[in-house]
Amino acid sequence: MVVLVREQGNPPQEHRLCESQHPELCRARPTEFANHYCCYSPLCNQNVSLVLEATQTPSEQPRLDGQLPLILGPVLALLVLVALGALGLWHVRRRQEKQQGLHSELGESSLILKASEQGESILGDLLDSDCTTGSGSGLPFLVQRTVARQVALVECVGKGRYGEVWRGLWHGESVAVKIFSSRDEQSWFRETEIYNTVLLRHDNILGKDKGFIASDMTSRNSSTQLWLITHYHEHGSLYDFLQRQTLEPQLALRLAMSAACGLAHLHVEIFGTQGKPAIAHRDLKSRNVLVKSNLQCCIADLGLAVMHSQGSDYLDIGNNPRVGTKRYMAPEVLDEQIRTDCFESYKWTDIWAFGLVLWEIARRTIVNGIVEEYRPPFYDVVPNDPSFEDMKKVVCIDQQTPTIPNRLAADPVLSGLAQMMRECWYPNPSARLTALRIKKTLQKLSNSPEKPK
């Protein structure tokens, strides 16, 4: 046999022995310290070479025990962060879905409940209900969109340069739907912004509680439509009303005074939590004044309105390239001398235009059985669709104003109305009447003992 032995600290040593002397070694298992080879023929161990088992010492083994925490620590921390982030995101999404679901249920349930009640006005109740925002700025946007999607258009009742007005039906009630053309998107946005942010609680202004219902951007026939939904006034605009109706002096005074009340409320700034900024209309004309069922006027179409807050002295002109109606433009606008950084300048242009509206009312008022056909201001000196230059020549260069019928002098109310028109048309803007003065003068005429019965 051959035996290979390695003692501690020494190199392996080979020993050649006879099997008969150490038979127990042939039954031993090789280790890293000893190995053996047994054979059973003469001198069979002469050419045998052995090696020890290639077993690593503890010092040679990889030291993974110390490295394992360094590897697993960052991995576990990353997994924990990912899990926490996913849990937080799920929690936020779930809370948002619950809130949206609650708002949707509130809006839809309110609409359904209101629709199910018989014998009363759904729109009136909806605007008076708890669905409103409480700030005087109209219905919440979710309810506005719900109303808009449920309106069915019935008939077109008006068409102009910047869009159309339709009569629509919502749960059996008539509503007015003003559809803006795409080029007039800024007017739709501005009017929606004012109705939804400014407190306009006044009988003679189309605003929250007084006519505005909803606005929405919708898609029909593969095109985008901009809707503004208001209460439907069957008499239409003052322009439409005057073409159909002649007026008694008392009705003329009622129309004029209610319109003046609305304009005075627009122009004044109201302070406090229930306040509002001062507002100039900038496109006042008979087409933008509606006649309500009680034969009072309310001012509409605030797409060009300018707002001013005295406390901050901030003038909010908006971002609308559209200009007002040329026929109703004041001379300082036509000759481009208006001070665009001064809020009072815009109020003065409203007064000029209001004088033209008074002239339209006066022409359709019967005095001694005489009345004129409806005509727009300056009908006799400019074409149907006058250009900017046409109006500038007539108003600024020729300094013309509409002719006031002589017959108005025969009536105490209408003679006062005629004098008021002249004071609205002063070339010097600051010399014109204020809306509040017009309102008080008309109230005085209304209370006059000489007023027609």
TrEMBL record:
Main subcellular location = membrane
- Membrane topology of the entry: Single-pass type I membrane protein
PROSITE patterns given for it?
Answer: GS, PROTEIN_KINASE_ATP, PROTEIN_KINASE_DOM, PROTEIN_KINASE_ST
- Spell out the InterPro entries in the cross-references: GS_dom, Kinase-like_dom_sf, Prot_kinase_dom, Protein_kinase_ATP_BS, Ser-Thr/Tyr_kinase_cat_dom, Ser/Thr_kinase_AS, Snake_toxin-like_sf, TGFB_receptor
Checking CDD domains in the record gives: STKc_ACVR1_ALK1 (cd14142)
Q: Where are the transmembrane segments?
A: 68-90
Start and end of every Protein kinase domain?
A: 151-445
User: What's its catalytic activity?
Assistant: L-threonyl-[receptor-protein] + ATP = O-phospho-L-threonyl-[receptor-protein] + ADP + H(+); L-seryl-[receptor-protein] + ATP = O-phospho-L-seryl-[receptor-protein] + ADP + H(+)
Q: List this protein's GO terms for biological process.
A: angiogenesis; heart development; transforming growth factor beta receptor signaling pathway
Q: Which family does it belong to?
A: Belongs to the protein kinase superfamily. TKL Ser/Thr protein kinase family. TGFB receptor subfamily.
The name of this protein is receptor protein serine/threonine kinase
